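Example record for the data management plan.
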Amino acid sequence: MTTVNQFNDADPLHGILRGTIATAAYLNALGLPPTILTPLRTITASGVVQSDTDYILLVDATAGDIVLQLPTVTLMALRREFWFKRVDATDHTVSLVPSGSETIDGQAGALLSTQNETLRLINTGLELSTLGVTPQASAYSR
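Corresponding structural encoding:
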């Protein structure tokens, strides 16, 4: 099964590609995989990562600690990816917490500790796995 981005003419950000305005009908007809035109969201408070709309998440913990609850592995597409980037330089913590007893590389979660630290996660079907970490995202045990 191929996942296809759905575009909506009412949302102009989804119709703009490299400065060219395209209609929803045209973009939907292309059948682009979701990794071609990925949504970006800035997070400034604790919350839930959405498996159907979140891809790239810029996390700003300036106002305080942030805990992000990750989607359930079995309810999202196999090989579904998320990118997280910490954008602030504060001492607050940013925690990524899998659903229930699920894990990230066998660990209970992950932390983004420093400014510009990034973490790329992928759904393996059994757990979330890290594909890339820069400079020093770290897993932690419960």
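Summary line stored alongside the record: Residues 1-33 form one domain.
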